[in-house]
Amino acid sequence: MPGFYGPVMRIRIVDAFTDRPFAGNPAGVLLFDSDTFPDDDRLQRIAAEVNLSETAFARRLPEGGDADWALRWFTPVAEVDMCGHATLATAHVLHTTGAATGTVRFSARCGILTATAHEDGSITLDFPTAPLIPTAPPEGVATALGAEPLGTHDTGPHIGDLLVELADEKAVRALAPDIAALGRHSRRGIIATAAAEDPSRGYDYVSRCFFPNVGIDEDPVTGSAHTALAPFWSARLGREDLTGLQASARTGLVRTSVRGDRTLLTGNAVTVIDGELLA
Fold first, then answer.
1. Of the four, 1, 145, 176, 209, which is 20 to 30 A from 11 by CA?
2. Isomerase: is it a keyword of this entry (predicted)?
């Protein structure tokens, strides 16, 4: 059955960095059986219609190359350079539908990324580690965030966020920032973080992420942010392997492991909607 502008496309909505529905971060996933992607305007319109933090678009690449699938990510208003949760969601769809097994290689704007499925259902992403460049707190960021930073770091070109350390977990959870004002202090947004109040609860640090410049007031769980959070907290806590809790309303856990210039992000995913895009 054709849609308004061509063949009907299958679309999944996948909750990433969670093992239960209606938690974690939902992403749209569309797989294409074509040599090229649809034009950028159509991809952006689809992402705006899906209206989630990100929608992932993937197409199979010829055998023998550096990657198996080309992967792109769009928020409702812009294409982004890097996205963790929608990559996890795409890998989950590929493995649960039998389109891929073992390790999948993606070619993306930020380089080659891999996703490895495990027997327990979890998936590990291999992403570039974000640089952490100490910087003075920009004027007005404390007012916009509603909390006084202990320190701030720039996270480099692929992410484009300002990482802000706060005094404690309570300060992170209590944030009610001026979203419009936050947009003046980074290319994408703000990562607010603090050490866990009680690590016996199963996580070592907490974060919340606000990305007004790409149309996302607060992202539920942000894989890409953990490529900066992981090296930051590994250096502080003296361990390579940690677990981060993103303390949004939906919450989600990201297991992180720093391996020099690469950071491993491990989590689960659940498909909650499997349907057809008619337009």
1. 209
2. yes
Other residues' Cβ atoms within 10 Å of the Cβ of residue 269:
28
User: CB-based contacts of 274: which residues, under 8 Å, 6+ apart?
Assistant: 10, 11, 12
Q: How far is CA 195 from CA 34, 130, 247, in A?
A: 46, 19, 12
Domain encompassing residue 55:
9-127+266-277
Report if residue 35 sits inside a domain.
yes
**What is the per-residue pLDDT across 143-179, written as a single tens digit (0 to 9) for each?**
999 999 999 999 998 899 999 999 999 999 999 999 9
C-alpha span between 194 and 241 (Å, rounded): 17
CB 88 within 8 A of CB 125: yes
Catalytic residue numbers read 54
Report the C-alpha gap between 243 and 262 in whole angstroms.
Answer: 16
* Whether 98 and 51 share a structural domain: yes
